[in-house]
Amino acid sequence: MANTYLLEVGVEEMPAHVVTPSIQQLHQRVADYLKDQRIGFDNIKEYATPRRLSLLISGLDAKQPDIDESVKGPAKKIAQDADGNWTKAAIGFSRGQGASVDDIEFKDVKGTAYVFVEKHIEGKPLAEVLKGLPDVITSMNFPTQMKWGYHNLQFIRPIRWLVSLLNDQVVPFKILDVEAGRTTRGHRFLGHDVDLKEADDYEEDLHQQFVIADQDKRKQVINQQIDQIVEEHDWVIDKDPNLMEEVNNLVEWPTAFAGSFEQKYLVLPDEVLITSMKDNQRFFYLRDHQGKLLPYFIAVRNGNRDYLDNVIKGNERVLVPRLEDAKFFFEEDQKISIADYVERLKRVSFHDKIGSMAEKLARVTVLAQLFGKKVGLDDQQLNDLKRASQIYKFDLTTQMVGEFAELQGIMGEIYAQLQGERPTVAKAIAEEYMPTSAEGKLPQSPVGTVLAIADKLDSIMSFFAVGMIPSGSNDPYALRRQAFGIVRIIADRQWHLPLMGMAAEYSQALEAAGIDNQLDFSRHAKEVRSFFLDRLKQLFHEEHLRHDIVDAVCDTKQNDIADVIEAAAAIDQRKDNDQFKEAVEALTRVVRLARKGDLPADQWQVDPQLFENPSEKSLWDKTTELQQEFSGQTLDEHFAELLALHDLISDYFEENMIMAKDEAVKHNRLSQLSIIAAMTNEFGNLDELIVK
Question: What is the second-level CATH architecture of the domain 351-544?
């Protein structure tokens, strides 16, 4: 008989954003537990709603397989004394294996006799194994946890019921004062408790109690209902997948409906209306076929169509105060100039250990100009960049952003446009925040991109300067996200900036600009560098770059993120070439000998008059040629040229003793190798590469 087991953990309503990761976590933990317990299965089906996390496991083995094993103990000379009596070591070993000294056998292992006990372990029945699931459930972790009653257990929400049903039989266990059984609960208002006859009845029995337990089917129902409403009214909808996921995890029996609001609120910017509907109320907004926002929305209730008119009116009534506030703030904010808002930033703290927001803007203005010139912005772009960096946080002091914090940057762009700022300046104010997530959209305009890099780098360097360095999972100011954002921007733009070693240059630029900077950027400059290299590793791993290549290019003295990315690409592109192994081995041999020689760079002097063999001249001529060409080559081209030195290097080592007795010759050869090693080290530590 095929065994099917149902596990349901019933809880009070969970926050929507934790439902999906929680059921995925439970799935993984239970699967791992069954594997550890040597119980095979065919499939695990997930079910999740705001009130339940459930797994239906099919094709389960009836019992664990029996195990016959030979367990090795201490050596015979330790297990017995000189008279052949059993020692405490032997007695303790046999007892630990559930046996006695009478069960001991001696076996020879590489010429030495050891104690062995033959064990037969009877596999436990499936029902017995499943009784261990409470420990699996209670070991789950969540972003936020809570206690209830007098219990010490922490869980996402209080556990109210448990179902543990193997085929048609209850597998009893208990968590706190909740005993597992066969009774599940239907919809909180529409359904009733139901006793499940068999595990396979779960989904259908719950459906009769107004619960669509399958989250995928529930989402499909929502989509179909929304599509029907949209089609009936000839609307256009943006079914944001994140909002859809959230709405799906808020309901057990979805019913979609359309609501409306007054036309007068359409004077508000679309972003304000969308935020009020989508972010604050979980409504889907609607447009006409020309892209104009309409005074309607679609929402989803957790229930049926009974009294739906009242539900619609209630949702409309809840939205109006948000829109009314937004309209008031929008009108009031426009009565104040950008200059006045910027002045207020002097009273807004960026961080009490770092300074005010106005001081941050002053620093970023200098840093942005530094970067803008390095990446080749023209005079107009530099002027726009200067203006944007002087005002880009002004909207933080507006009433709209004070109420709708998620609109920072967005309102800055809108208000800047309304007050006559150049479009490039306004766009940069919004783009400075990008990317807002690990996979978020990157800034598109050159001015906005430079400002985004400058703002993020200043934040990272400032927090590091005061010793506030992320550790473990602790990163309250999202510095990892900001650093990864910079890395993604650089990878996209391929801009060459010395971002991993800016301490001295940044401090000098601030001093030259007359800014009284109290932050010691050099204090944790090494940690800033390591911080960025870790983000580079993250990028490389996401791109599935081979781990040894990642280790090689990230073991570098480069300060330019783009150079490290280009080095990784150059190595990755050639890793499968026929001559790659021999070429890399030749270069790493050069690097190791140069490192052993330890000549300071100012002492690298090569005198061709000291050459004793043709291979020295051949290698030197090619090296000189490479040095001259390097400034005009890409790293990819340079790496190809270095690999092509393979035959010359092989001949060189064949004919020459590097550590010659003649000190002048030895110095000459080490200088020659050191120059090649320096060019090789532009690509990191090639010793890390695995070549076969």
Answer: Orthogonal Bundle (1.10)
What Cα–Cα distance (Å) separates residue 549 from each residue in 491, 533, 544, 552, 576? 17, 13, 11, 5, 13
Q: What does the DSSP assignment read for 474-538?
A: B-TT-HHHHHHHHHHHHHHH-----GGG-HHHHHHHHHHTT------TTTTHHHHHHHHHHHHHH
Residue 691 and residue 9: Cα distance in Å, rounded? 51
- Of the candidates 126, 115, 62, the one whose C-alpha atom is nearest the C-alpha of residue 93 is 115
In the chain, domain spans = 3-63+126-208, 67-121, 215-333, 351-544, 564-688
CB 375 within 8 A of CB 297: no
What torsion, rounded to 10 degrees, do the Cα atoms 359, 360, 363, 367 define?
A: -170
| Residues 228 and 34 sit within 8 Å (Cβ to Cβ) | no
CB 150 within 8 A of CB 133: no
Write out pLDDT tens, residues 570-617.
999 999 888 899 999 999 999 999 998 888 888 888 899 999 989 989
Q: Considering the entire predicted model, what is its pTM?
A: 0.83
Query: CA-to-CA distance for 239 and 251, rounded, in angstroms?
Result: 17
Of the options 3.30.1120, 2.60.290, 3.40.50, 3.30.70, the CATH number for the domain spanning 3-63+126-208:
3.30.70
Fold (CATH) for 564-688: Isoleucyl-tRNA Synthetase; Domain 1 (1.10.730)
- Residues 604-641: tens digit of each pLDDT: 888 999 999 899 899 999 999 888 887 778 888 889 99
